[in-house]
Amino acid sequence: MILYLDTSALVKRYFYEPYSDDVISRWKSATQIVTSFVAYAETMASIYRKKRESALADTLIRKIADSFHHDWESFIRVEVNDKLNGYIDRVVEKYPLRGFDAIHLASAIVIHERLSEDFVFACFEKRLTGAAQLEGLETFPPEDETI
C-alpha cells in the first residue's frame, strides 16, 4: 500500500495526537510514503510552532526535527511544478481548498494515477478529505471520523 500523507497526518508521527497510533501503524505497513515538497515547510513550521506554544525543550525539538529530516529522505516527494499546475487548476475549480491543500490533493491524484498499487490518502482536514473522496481516493480516516 502506498500512503500519501498531507501535513496534518505527517505531524502525527512526531507528536502524539488523536490518531497518531493509527497513522504510525499504516506508515509501518506501507510500501512507500508519499507527500508533496510543500510538506517540508509545513512540517518544520508545525514543529517549531508546537515548541513555542508548548515550551518544549530545545533538545526534544532537535530530536523531532532530526527524525523528520531522516524520514524525509525516504519519502517519494511530488514536486510543485508546471506539470502539477493542471491538476491544481482542476481541484481548485471544483473544491473550496486552501492553496497548500490543493497542492496536496493534486499531488496525490498524480501519484494515484501513475501507480497501480493500493493507495491511501491520509489527511485530518475535513474539507480536503471530502475533496479527496470525491476524486475517488481512499482516505484515512474516513470523512465521518475526520477531526
Summarize the structure in words.
With 147 residues, the chain is an alpha/beta fold. The chain has one domain (2-145): 3-Layer(aba) Sandwich (Rossmann fold), CATH 3.40.50.1010. The protein is 59% helix and 13% strand. It is built from 7 helices and 5 strands, in the order βααβααβααβαβ. The chain has helices spanning 7-10, 20-29, 38-54, 58-74, 82-94, 99-114, 126-134, and strands spanning 2-5, 32-36, 76-78, 119-122, 138-140. The chain has a 5-stranded parallel beta sheet, with helices on both faces. The longest helix is centred in the first third of the chain and has 17 residues, at 38-54. The radius of gyration is 15 Å and the shape is globular. The model has no long low-confidence stretch (mean pLDDT 95).
